[in-house]
User: What shape does this take?
Amino acid sequence: MFDSHFHTTDPRLNSLPEVVQGKNHGVEIGADFASLPTVFAYAREHEHIYCTAGVHPEYADTYSANDFEHFVVEHLHEPKFVAIGECGLDYHRADLPSRAEQIAAFEHQIYMADRYRKPLVVHSRDAWEDTANVLIANRAKLKNGVLIHCMSYTAEQAKFLMSQLSGIEVYFAFGGHITYKSKAYLHDTLRAIPLNRILIETDAPYLAPVPKRGEINLPQYIQYTAETMARVLGKTPLAVETLTAENAYRFYKIKAAR
Assistant: This one.
């Protein structure tokens, strides 16, 4: 199984022995510029862990285009560096940076993904319209692929984005929230997406799936998400694990031994 998105360098996880013992294959996501050196060091230290460089919209008001580009260029040839992100838009809370600041940071990271030929990992929460508009307006810069992480929108919205970005490899990752009763509409979203464009993630330590909801999410809890996705798709958990792993290797352009 390949976990396409987690944060095991988060202080809530990095001291837990069960995280290391899990020996998961996957991608440690960069979201805070100050923590990127730690994220990259963690990937270097673990054989089957890869990493991304990105600045989450929560930090858009402190985003420095020059500093971020300098970091990317400095680490560009590291084999574990597989994508730009997570970046994007988050309108969930009133205390987050302004929409203008978020869009500016998002668009610069889209530019970076294009310039340095990396796929793009997108965070979008309660910001569907602006996220779609920014991606569509910048579709020429998405030729290395785009992943909507923690997909939380409807089947109709997923179909719309795929149609507007026709010819671009658009992927969607589902996490523990697909196991929640309040997110049952995501079952239709999952079924609306081609099987070769579906990924699985934990977003650990966030979004622990049922029956672990409310706990600190651990990478090994991905099995519960896989089981729910399997039921929705009418497949076995092993089939879901296999197809999402192959999709992740393709999206992140990883040629590691399985």
